[in-house]
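dumping this here before i forget
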Amino acid sequence: MKLIGRDHILFERLTSDIQIISSSITKFNIFITNDDELVIEIDFKLLYQSESVLKLRFKGVKEYSFYWNIRHSFYHVETYKLIKKEDLFYVSFDPEDESLLDTSEGDQDFILFSEFEGYYIASLA
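structure:
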């Protein structure tokens, strides 16, 4: 894995040169660390990057919600919202309105967290 950024640096990269629009989420990994911290890892198959797999590791998770059912394909990112919210970050992979610079009751598939890291990885394994 090749580190591409953490926290504010990764935030800036995801809002500028790393595009996850039109990517596919291929893997979720949700676990508790030895320090009782909830961590969520998500792998994305990127469409527009030379490095084709991006792993985002969300740490210090305060809240999350994901929903899926058989009637929907798993899982194409058509739009997303990534914002800084006081001392936390917030991402929604199915926002009600991606142009809003705040959370919304209608946002779906979201994570509220304090830290995150991004990596390019060699394969989907």
